[in-house]
Predict the structure of Glycosyl transferase.
Amino acid sequence: EQPELYEKCFEAFKDVEATVVLVVGKKININQFENIPNNFKLYNYVPQLEVLQHAHVFVTHGGMNSSSEALYYGVPLVVIPVTGDQPLVAKRVTEVGAGIRINRKELSSELLRETVEKVMDDVTFKENSRKVGESLRNAGGYNRAVDEIFKMRMNSYLKLK
């Protein structure tokens, strides 16, 4: 919920030939924005998993859940971290070649547009995002995690006997 960031998005993407889905969060009144470009769709909330299945790039703060969900669907990222685990997630996304990090203090509408264009134009970001997504899909999710924990506990129990 950062109105100044959304204004930079308007400026950066106002003339692109694409639909820009901008989710502003539940605390922001969408009506407060003036001059919303015609190619923008503003929402307080969207079913993110459904939207990500159609996205070509995902601009995000880099929370672990959102980033993992995007990568699950092979969507490359532009990460603008703010706090918590976000800088670490942004670093890892960059290391695996699945996206680019933008330093929040350096953010401008020009830099945002250039970075999104770079991520969309360079196919290696998409390829690397797909590879990470494939790895996530093959990992087995929580069911496998439960199985592995159970195996570890059983092995510990059997060693005690």
Remarks:
- The mean pLDDT is 92.
- DSSP finds seven helices and five strands in the chain.
- Residues 47-160 form a domain with the Rossmann fold fold (CATH 3.40.50.2000).
- The helical segments are 3-13, 48-52, 64-72, 86-95, 109-121, 123-138, 141-160.
